Recover the amino acids of this structure.
């Protein structure tokens, strides 16, 4: 029988033989609300997107039924941390992400931060 373990950032902890191959990593993710209902309505029609900006990428999703949009960073992430303890973003990172949303989607600006966190995953030697 084959067993597949999908433990993400906790994989190397569960299978110690993978510690030299797998490393916990994380990227900042923020959930934002546009300034008003008109901004939220406009952002409901935005497709899922990925934007390459210099040495980093930004991805996101259209506004959900509550008007909240998700904006995430994609690029070299935070590595080698304890995924059970490190999930908070610095105020500076949150503000950078909020400001970026304001510049990408001016119809929703100024955005209000609803939630911010590190999204954890696993990087392997192949990354």
């Amino acid at each position: 029988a084959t067993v597949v373990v999908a433990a993400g950032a906790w994989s190397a902890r569960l299978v110690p033989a993978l510690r030299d191959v797998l490393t916990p990593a994380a990227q900042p993710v923020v959930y934002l609300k546009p300034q008003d209902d008109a901004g939220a309505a406009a952002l409901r029609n935005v497709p899922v997107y990925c934007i390459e900006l210099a040495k980093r990428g930004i991805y996101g999703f259209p506004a959900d039924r509550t008007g909240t949009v998700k904006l995430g960073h994609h690029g070299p992430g935070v590595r080698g941390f304890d995924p059970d303890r490190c999930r908070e973003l610095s105020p500076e990172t949150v503000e950078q992400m909020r400001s970026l949303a304001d510049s990408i989607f001016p119809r929703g600006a100024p955005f209000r931060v609803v939630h911010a966190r590190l999204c954890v995953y696993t990087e392997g030697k192949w990354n």
